[in-house]
Amino acid sequence: MHHDPGVRDQVARWQVLRKAGAATWDHLRGGSGPPEYAPLVRTLVEAGHSPDVVDDPEHDVAQQSLRQHAGAWSDDEAAAAFVAGLWSAPAAWRSALPGLLVARAMPVHPLVPWNEDASLCEVCGFRAGPVQLVDEWASRLTEGTPLDGEPSAYGRTLAWLGRGRPGPTEHDRWALGAVLEVLATVPDGTRYAAAAKAIAAAGVLRSRRAAVAVLEDLALVGVLARPDRPGMVERFTTYRERDQRPTVRVEVQAPLAWWDTTVGDHGVRRDLFDGLFGGLDVPAVSLDGPRPTPSPAAKDTIDGGLAGRAQALAPRAPRISASVGAGPPAPGDVWAVRVLPGRWVTLYVHEVADRGGRPYARTEFLAGVHPALPELEDVSGTVQPRADGRAPTWAHSLGTTSWTRRIGQVVPVPAADRSLPDGGSWVAAKELRHLSGWHFPDA
Question: How confident is the model at residue 31 (pLDDT cuts 50, 70, 90)?
Answer without folding.
Answer: very low
